[in-house]
């Protein structure tokens, strides 16, 4: 492997409070007194969400290009160029622009130039990477309103189009002159829209948008006219869309909430039956995804486990190549002591579950297939560990005494998926809180919706009988999610709320509360507002004295008596540093 200017980072593993407080990246000399640096527990990375393309070098040799998220915010992004014949890897350091993740999407032009944006949110720089010469050049600084570019496409004149999060601003780039034009927002919406673009053969650029209200937008690249094509009565909360340019010159689009396919052409929308997918322009390239110019293709690539499977031209069976890279520290989201006295936890993007033996210093890590999320919290009930997983509202059960099955979350035998997907995504797709109930039988999970909605559900699972119960938002706290949970001595459950909606949603409630859930009736018995105006209750514990101790944003620490509802103590503790959950 060749690597230029790589600067590996490490994560300190000390006591749990230290790691949970921030997954700090440090050098050996920065380790605080009393801590031991045990190194990086999961030195892996993953591709950006739409960050892999098949291409070739200047001599025509097949290459897999990967926009590689392989570190922390101090140096997050690299480019990997993997020789599809041998696995030999060139890891390209991107300098100061690689310090952050940049765009989720990339685009490979017909002349083998790669377009991307790099840099921190609201400071993105549009860049061009020449595959043949392996050189990076900056084209333009994007406006501060752009948090990230989330989609690219190309039109028939070779103009590259891009759109941004959160406001669906539309940009065009002429690769020949390198002129970048900001065309403004495609529509005036108040929520994050995550647009996806495609262009027809008549100068119109289209976007699907998602979350609070899915829709289809159109922009005339000649006149600047904007249209919202989807009828108001068909716009609804949406998380997934499909939009693509076909060989007939039109664009076809579909929203999961609408269940209707549409043909988009010359700024007009026509309902159609589901079309054959004769795609002319794909998500990040004009060539067939995964196919190299020499007729070979990659069947799959597993970046965390450093392997890919290649099907050579004329071959029927894939062959494996192994590649290399230097992965640096990834954020650790959660840790827990297992029933065997070892430390278990999860790092994120990609999801890796690690095991660490504090006596020997030995460690191991595994994934859940190519899962790019994170286990937001672990709890232990009996001799098993239960994790809540971002994205689908998944609850997983892990038996540390059995081998770890590094397979996709839906099929892994250990951890096995107990619950998730479907309605769970809308109730607690971004799970924030888990609780092992003191009755020894139940595990609880809650959070906020994955996308677009407000209000949360509560999932209750009996680990002995496998019985399930789901409480819905109308049963809990109106228009609020749940960020923290704890149990009182009598078994009642405390729910610390958050006013945050799912991504792309609109906040409705004005202040967070603590709600007391009667464990016998599974109904809300009473609520308190410990910190007026606070947006969230970020943590709760109930020690032996039976009082409620909690944290809120802004470094607020409070103590509340659940018997009287009296707020016993409150103070700001920012002098001690930052807090978890904020």
Describe the structure.
This protein has 582 residues and is mainly β. It folds into three domains: 1-112 and 293-330, no CATH class; 145-283, Methylamine Dehydrogenase, Chain H; 334-576, Methylamine Dehydrogenase, Chain H (7 Propeller), CATH 2.130.10. Helices cover 2% and strands 43% of the residues. The protein is built from two helices and 47 strands. It has a five-stranded mixed beta sheet with strand order 1-7-6-5-4, with no helix packed on it. A hairpin with a 5-residue loop joins strand 40 and strand 41 (493-498). The chain is globular and about 70 Å long.
**Share in β-strands:** 35-45%
Write out the strand line-up for the largest beta sheet, numbering strands in chain order: 1-7-6-5-4
* Overall CATH class of the largest domain: Mainly Beta
How far apart the termini lie comes to: 39 Å
Q: Which ranges are low-confidence, i.e. pLDDT below 50, for 5 or more consecutive residues?
A: 1-25
Give the quaternary arrangement of the chains.
Answer: single chain
The amount of helix comes to under 10%
- Shape-level CATH architecture of the largest domain: 7 Propeller
| Average pLDDT score | 90
Keywords for this entry:
47 strands, mainly beta, disordered N terminus, five-stranded mixed β-sheet, Methylamine Dehydrogenase, Chain H, 582 residues, five-stranded antiparallel β-sheet
């Amino acid at each position: 492997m060749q690597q230029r200017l790589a600067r590996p980072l490490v994560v300190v593993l000390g006591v749990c409070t230290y790691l949970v407080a921030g997954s700090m990246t440090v050098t050996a000399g920065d380790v605080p007194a009393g801590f031991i640096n045990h190194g990086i527990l999961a030195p892996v990375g993953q591709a950006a969400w739409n960050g892999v393309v098949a291409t070739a070098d200047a001599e025509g040799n097949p290459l897999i290009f990967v926009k590689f998220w392989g570190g922390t915010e101090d140096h997050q992004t690299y480019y990997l160029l993997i020789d599809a014949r041998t696995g030999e890897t060139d890891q390209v350091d991107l300098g100061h622009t690689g310090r952050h993740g940049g765009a989720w999407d990339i685009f490979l032009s017909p002349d083998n130039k790669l377009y991307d944006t790099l840099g921190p949110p609201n400071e993105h720089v549009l860049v061009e990477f020449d595959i043949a010469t392996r050189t990076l050049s900056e084209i333009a600084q994007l406006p501060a309103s752009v948090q990230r570019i989330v989609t690219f496409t190309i039109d028939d004149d070779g103009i590259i189009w891009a759109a941004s999060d959160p406001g669906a601003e539309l940009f065009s780039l002429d690769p020949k002159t390198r002129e970048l034009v900001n065309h403004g927002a495609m529509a005036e919406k108040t929520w994050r829209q995550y647009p996806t673009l495609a262009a027809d053969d008549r100068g119109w650029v289209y976007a699907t948008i998602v979350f609070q209200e899915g829709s289809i937008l159109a922009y005339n690249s000649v006149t600047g006219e904007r249209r919202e094509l989807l009828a108001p009565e068909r716009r609804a909360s949406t998380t997934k869309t499909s939009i693509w340019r076909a060989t007939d010159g039109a664009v076809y689009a579909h929203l999961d909430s609408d269940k209707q396919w549409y043909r988009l052409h010359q700024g007009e929308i026509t309902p159609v039956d589901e079309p054959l997918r004769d795609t002319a322009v794909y998500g990040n390239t004009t060539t067939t995804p995964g196919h190299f110019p020499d007729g070979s293709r990659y069947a799959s690539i597993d970046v965390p486990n450093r392997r890919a499977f290649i099907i050579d031209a004329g071959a029927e069976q894939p062959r494996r190549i192994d590649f290399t890279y230097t992965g640096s520290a990834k954020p650790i989201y959660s840790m827990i002591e297992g029933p065997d006295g070892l430390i278990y936890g999860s790092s994120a993007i990609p999801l890796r579950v690690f095991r660490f033996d504090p006596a020997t210093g030995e460690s191991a890590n595994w994934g859940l297939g190519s899962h790019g999320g994170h286990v937001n919290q672990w709890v232990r009930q009996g001799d098993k560990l239960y994790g809540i997983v971002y994205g689908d509202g998944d609850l997983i059960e892990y038996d540390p005494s059995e081998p770890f099955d590094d397979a996709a979350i839906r099929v892994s035998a250990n951890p096995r998926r107990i619950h998730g997907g479907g309605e769970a995504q809308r109730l607690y797709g971004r799970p924030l809180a888990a609780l092992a109930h003191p009755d020894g039988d139940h595990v609880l999970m809650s959070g906020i919706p994955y996308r677009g909605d407000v209000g949360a559900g509560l999932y209750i699972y009996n680990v002995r009988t496998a019985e399930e119960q789901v409480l819905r938002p109308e049963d809990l706290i109106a228009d609020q999610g749940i960020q923290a949970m704890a149990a009182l001595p009598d078994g009642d459950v405390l729910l610390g709320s958050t006013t945050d909606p799912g991504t792309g949603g609109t906040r409705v409630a004005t202040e967070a509360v603590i709600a007391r859930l009667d464990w016998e009736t599974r109904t809300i018995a009473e609520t308190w507002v410990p910190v007026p105006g606070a947006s969230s209750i970020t943590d709760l514990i109930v020690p032996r004295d039976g009082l409620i101790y909690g944290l809120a944003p802004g470094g607020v620490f409070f103590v509340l008596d659940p018997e009287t509802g009296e707020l016993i103590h409150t103070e700001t503790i920012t002098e001690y540093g930052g807090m978890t959950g904020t």
